[in-house]
Amino acid sequence: MLLKDEQEEKKEKKLDPRIKRTRQLLQQALMGLMAEKSFQAITVQDIAERATVNRVTFYAHFEDKYALLEYTMREMFKQRLRSQLPDGSLFSPENLARLILIVCELLAETGRQCPPPHGQLEPLMEKQIKAELYEVLYAWLAEASSGKTERRPTPEQAAMITSWAIYGAAVQWSQKEQPEPAREFVQQVLPIIIASLNTSKEEDEDD
What we know:
It is built from 10 helices and no strands. By secondary structure, it is mostly helical.
């Protein structure tokens, strides 16, 4: 899974600037339309017209509107990760808290910008955010467990379980009628997430 995403990242960086620009236009068009009506009501023609491209150009980049939505959700999350958790960041309670906060803020922002119903939006968003969470967590845990053959669970297992836990907690918070501030919520769930990882800064220092 990690190798596949690394390959996709390299391909993305090599894209012709014109292709990147067209995809950005399509993403912006989709998000603009989603602020006005439900995803279900949006058509490929709507997106193409808003992006000032034709349908042929749209289909040259994406199979359908669902593929564009998946790409858009993942790119939005990646951009936030890059700005707040630079490449080379290591596992720490502070970085883990920042990661949870990024998810909470993205869900809250999407909920404000996109009118209901969210029936088709939520599964696609969940898939993409969990996938990115897994990549970040796996990289952290693999580094932290390097050379420690007795560590259980494995980095793969811990990353998968924790990505689900973080996303589930963020969804629960975002769906509250009157949620507490995101930063306050993160501090509440952070000890639980750290415990689920079965690793901490103190453990690493003691080994």
